[in-house]
């Protein structure tokens, strides 16, 4: 599903935070990527999500090499991937009610009508009742907002889901609930998963395979 | 003054604390409801619960950091000497004599708490200078020692807050709180975003700080961190404390007694990894009875009346207490 080959990545100034890293996630497979904070694993997750252009290396999605990142990423490739980040408040447009937040990816597809039903079903699946869907991000808790962000990531039925520390800010019960939603989705759709995190116990329990992110000196 | 130790008031005594937020349209959000607890010097109390349960609001209330639309009730006496009611005190008093001096905070979003235009070193040194009247040469050493205790790398001391990752900003805030040396320290999710090794280091350092005689109120959703550092655990649900227990009982063979607390432990990936079904009630529409009833498999008719916190648990059908 996803092949990362010899990825070297970082930011404009400074040393690369990811060096020559290769990683494969097979169709339907759940891979956990484990590493300490600041080790570059989030940067790698962004590369895998086509949200960050690496300095060097190749990303292949379903066998097709990716030629553009961020807004240059081809739509067809971008929509195969769903992403959930650690901090829902940074990932959610504060002006959107949760209902619209979940349906956000539908906007650009012109399939708004058809996807409205799916958005409603997903809201139920992640446990958000109708009374919450009219609220904006500042009116709900982190856990509720993260539930909405997960629903949004699943809207277009991605065949690869990337969860970057999805549950790091959440309590045990919300964590278990969101993982259960991801696993139900994967079972029904045969989707693959790349879960990035620092909690070994969690990733072991969740994923088929857990890889230790290679030690790269921590930088700010 | 003879039997002072026996009669000595606790470091912090919170009694019937409630916080309501007045929202547009006349909505009331009851974020904290009738919370009472005490904290002794040299003790660590962990307040656990899910996001939105009121635990961070409680911390803000104690430090006078609530927004203007909040209304508080109850008392929170900070001692042991010169007792002051944190809820009744004027903002100027809190700012001048309490925050940072008698009650320190490790905030949940450290980036917002650090002064953006000054390096970590200069902030640490200033705190040391204000509080301890230290000479110049010693300042540098004290700042570096505090950074080391908080696992903040010395070669990052000359950076500005915006040059730090979330985890490093967290550790900088911890270093600042440790160096300020206030008798009461309130740590609001001090380990969020840190990996397990760093969580353990931070937790151990906070524990050491407690053992040196400071009182520590730690607010966390990380049960493993709570198990490692706390003497007692208080579980919050929908704005109320539903169980208080020693950490040994709570995490040990006895286990929690409240159905919500049991569910929370069972959700851990090292245990059943099973979520508690449903979501907590909205704080502007709390039921009259037990707020957990809609999710509780032990609920009966009597649960429509609010269970009082008696013997450490607020539940009509709590598991038996196991006597040690
Ligand atoms: S009081 Fe009733 S509903 Fe509430 S936790 Fe206990 S058994 Fe469950």
TrEMBL record, chain A:
Gene3D superfamilies: P-loop containing nucleotide triphosphate hydrolases (3.40.50.300). Keywords: ATP-binding, Nucleotide-binding, Transport. InterPro entries: AAA+_ATPase, ABC_transp_ATP-bind, ABC_transporter-like_ATP-bd, P-loop_NTPase. SUPFAM superfamilies: P-loop containing nucleoside triphosphate hydrolases. It holds the Pfam family ABC_tran. PROSITE patterns: ABC_TRANSPORTER_2. One of its GO terms (molecular function) is ATP binding. Residues 2-218 form the ABC transporter domain. Belongs to the ABC transporter superfamily. This is ATP-binding cassette domain-containing protein.
